[in-house]
Amino acid sequence: MRGPQRPGPFPHGDPPLELTTFVGRSAELAALASALGGARLVTVTGVGGVGKSRLAARAAAGWEPGSCGRVELAPVRDPQFVEYAVAEALGLTDHTARLPRQTLLEHLAGRPVLLVLDGFEHLVEACAELTAELLRKLPELSVLAAGRRPLGLAGERLFPLAPLGEDAAVELFTDRAREQGLTASDGPEVRELCRRLEGIPLAVELAAGRLRALSPGQLLQRLDDRFRLLTTGAGPRSVPGGPPSRHQTLRTAIGWSHELCTPAERLLWARLSVFAQTFDLEAAEYVCSGAGLPAEDVLDVLSQLLAQSVVTREDTPAGPRYRMLDTVRAYGAEWLAAAGDAGRLRRRHRDWYLGLATWCELDWFSPRQREIAERVEAELPNLRAALEFCLTEPDEAHLGQFLAGSLWFCWVGCGRLAEGRRWLERSVELDSEYEQSRLKALWVLGYVAILQGDTVPALAVLRECREQAERIADATAVAYAEHRTGCLALVSDDMARAETLLRSALERYQEIGELNSNVLMGQVELAMTRAFQGDLPDAVRLCEDVRQVCEDHGERWARSYALYVLAYAAWLDGAPARARELLADCLGHAHAFRDLLAEVLTLELLALVTATEGDPAEAALLQGAAARLWPSVGLPLFGSAYYNAPHERCEALARQTLGDARYEECVREGGRLDRAGAVARALGQGGVTRPEGARDRVDMRLRHGARPAPTGPQRPNRPETRTRRLARPAGPGEETAG
After folding, report:
1. 0.85 exceeded by the pTM?
2. I need a labelling partner for 420 at 20 to 30 A (CA). Which of 171, 385, 500, 659 fits?
3. Rounded distance, CA 99 to CA 556, Å?
């Protein structure tokens, strides 16, 4: 029977950090584990604030390392993005144009995985439909859902979560008091307070957050007054003289906590509700300040909300961030709407994230590239909210187009092609009087489509971009459209046209003073055309120039692609150790940026280098690892004769040494490695040692006859043809054009 085995990380990051102690629930945890052992779909239901998410996360943390994925769906507003959220939580990167659902089905096939869907109640139909298909087609999959209502599927086992018992509620109250450096004894007033709050953890924690200002007795008195109002005809759900429902208890506890806030605290509480998920201090100061709350006061007021458990703090790779629980956020949103200020705050929120994206795009070409990648990762829920606002509000389309286009580095450099294409396509479908914004979205859309291997739509949008750009004399858009059209020619094996277009684009960039990672990638792609046409020295010269510019500016993404070409040149010149050093540098940065295309290309070339070094078994294993990744990129090696030559030479050498049966066995072994495992193996982190013997013999054999040939590619049929074509390096143009 499948079930929890030992704590471990989720596939895409660690389990949610428990910043506070987990109180009680041992019986519930055991019962939930038992339910998961007997049913493939278990849904934890209960009132808001009862601890569904915390219990589900704790239960999932007991499963086999790498077998769990937790999906936070509260920030997702568009039902069509549910699939993207699930794929992201499972750490799946797919560069192709297929839907995320296809990726999920392919990557999860035959793998025992626990999928945790948290906060799905506003997306029930979409979640239910996706869950039903995944469970139907993936017999090894289990789903643990946590929400206020069931998914309503056949075979769903409901796990209603009751509030804490009195003793556990008191323990929670006193524990949270200790965390504030306060003392709250287990006395009659504390017990009565917990009884009145019906053991709802969120309500208890909110009450404990008030202990700095009020004693337990004062808290109880104020709560009594609030409940008395509620049970004397305050609303249609009230029963005079009877206890309120748990839903009303929670709302009462939140409303009571809200009433105890100062006017500034209530104002900030309402305004913070515009954030989709987490936020940082700078964002809060900009978005929420003004009209009664000076920016310099936001930190102090936020600190008070933290002390009262209205807001929680998290430490992330992008720095300290803050969040509000969904129930608390929803209460604040109601107040914001009632004040008639929701539209203004959403525009301020949009303005902040538009500015952030603009700054990140500029700073991508700097030593802060890794920091930018982490920052955008943390801000994705808010960036999505800003995009959604722009693309659904009248007269905002041009800002949505600009925002979607400005995030090109996120879509392309950080492995989010599928999501980026969806936003870009939505944006260019809208009418806009600001043509430059739409032109930017068009060339970025063309770039994304090329990388997905979707060449026909790519050519169409790039033609439209260039024609409109020439009509309005937008020199920048003309340059980018021409550049990306050259990129398309490169992956289509039309080297002469690719070289012409790329040279022209680079000249245009120089004329308008454009220098950034895109421009450097254009030069790397030009180097690829030179290498494929037999001029390896010129390709090396171009890439060394790119490398130097990258070193001067601290750029790492485009630099990785330049290193790829230089590594191939080093291998061709008989220096496999140097080639491996360059490829390790390239692979490390590509993996950090989640650039799947650069990863798989580097693995392919590392396989060839490894075969040269005399370890054909390890080379075949790396080819198997790359073969597993290619379906998530697109057509393996782009279906290009140029790019395929190193792969074929490596395979021929490995088969010749190992024999067909052993070669296929090694390929299958590599195919069992996941993405992280493949990268670790390639970087030598798996304890693999390579034989020194036969390196010189194999190396010399490969080097003979390996001079660049000036003619175009022929699909290799004979071994001697393959050897001759090795001189055409497979370089970064493939990456950018993939």
Report:
1. no
2. 500
3. 30
